[in-house]
Design a protein that fits this description.
By secondary structure, this protein is an alpha+beta fold. The protein is built from 8 helices and 16 strands. It is elongated. About 35% of the residues are buried.
């Protein structure tokens, strides 16, 4: 796809901030597409967002917006809207004045800007709240004001830095659904930073998974979940890890029976088929006790394939950890024995 057909294109972008290095990062965004940037704390999500906004100097690579090179352009000349984690509304201004702010900084007020202001108020259902101040609004209403303000100047790209992080957990899912609808109603491309897997799956057309400054995957949500391709990616996505010799693979919680062992326990599985893949192998196994148990698909990275692994038959597995997914991703890191894949030590 040519640069003119893309809303944004990032090529081998690298950023160094103190002792932390991010990159190389590459991705493309089509008009109206949402990229969810996912990863644990300390993975480089906010650093990437700040670099795209022009708030962090870029060490290498390029960033094009609508076919225009803006890698080192100042923030005010990029045509980018930004929604901060704390929303950063002006407390002394009314809803109408907050939304109009981005329009007022670009020159004298005119009929075109007034029409755009009214369009944003209507789009986000803020007409009846126009005279109120942020302190008089609910969390969802403040979020709508922040989105309307960021989109009022018609940016080519919208950046959102975990705007729901401080939301009441009981309201968070409702706000996620609303946010997904608002983002898809417009034609603006968006980059949405989150550490919440479910939020990334709901909002993202594609997901960029970061780990300690490295890109592990850039893929549609379904592809990411079904084929992590990296042991750290599988670990973060909530897969359980089991071992046979030197082979490691991910087992998603919904594929595990309650009767299967906890950490350190062993189990037998029937290996039905091994399918070669560029990054390793796909295995088809049966973990159930009954002969008619449904087969389960696992992935085995290339560097974890031991030469003595069987082609088929019974294999002995040892469970290392179990992770529960109940509404949100809950990570419980386990100290792995010698020879284990790299874990999240040092991540913050």
């Amino acid at each position: 796809m040519s640069g003119r057909e893309l809303a944004a294109a990032v090529r081998s972008l690298e950023v160094t901030s103190g002792s932390f290095h991010l990159g190389p990062v590459s991705f493309e965004l089509r008009p109206g597409e949402v990229l969810a940037v996912l990863g644990p704390n300390g993975s480089g999500k906010t650093t990437l967002l700040r670099a795209l906004a022009g708030l962090e100097p870029v060490e290498g690579g390029s960033f094009e917006l609508g076919g225009r090179e803006i890698t080192r352009a100042p923030p005010q000349r990029r045509g980018i809207g930004f929604v901060f984690q704390d929303l950063a509304l002006f407390p002394q201004k009314t809803v109408e004045e907050n939304v109009a702010y981005g329009l007022t900084v670009s020159g004298p007020w005119d009929d075109r800007k007034e029409a755009r202001l009214q369009e944003m108020l209507q789009r986000f259902g803020l007409e009846a709240l126009a005279r109120r101040r942020p302190g008089e609004l609910s969390g969802g209403e403040r979020q709508r004001v922040a989105l309307a303000r960021a989109l009022a100047p018609s940016p080519r790209l919208l950046l959102l830095d975990e705007p729901l992080a401080a939301s009441d957990p009981r309201r968070r899912r409702e706000l996620q659904v609303d946010l997904a609808r608002w983002l898809r109603e417009g034609s603006e491309a968006a980059v949405y930073v989150t550490h919440d897997l479910e939020e990334a799956l709901l909002l993202g057309d594609r997901i960029l998974l970061l780990w300690k400054g490295r890109v592990l995957r850039w893929a549609p949500p379904v592809d990411l979940l079904s084929d992590p391709q990296d042991v750290n990616a599988a670990w973060f996505l909530g897969y359980n890890v089991a071992r046979d010799g030197k082979a490691w693979f991910g087992v998603h919680p919904w594929d595990l029976e309650p009767s299967l062992p906890k950490e350190g326990g062993t189990l037998s599985a029937r290996l039905l088929r091994r399918v070669p893949a560029p990054w390793g192998e796909r295995w088809l196994l049966s973990l159930g006790r009954e002969e008619g148990s449904l087969p389960w698909e696992a992935w085995v990275p290339k560097d974890r394939l031991a030469p003595d692994l069987p082609k088929e038959g019974t294999v002995e597995l040892r469970a290392l950890r179990r992770v529960a997914l109940e509404g949100s991703l809950e990570i419980d890191w386990l100290k792995s024995p010698e020879g284990s894949p790299p874990g999240p030590s040092g991540a913050t």
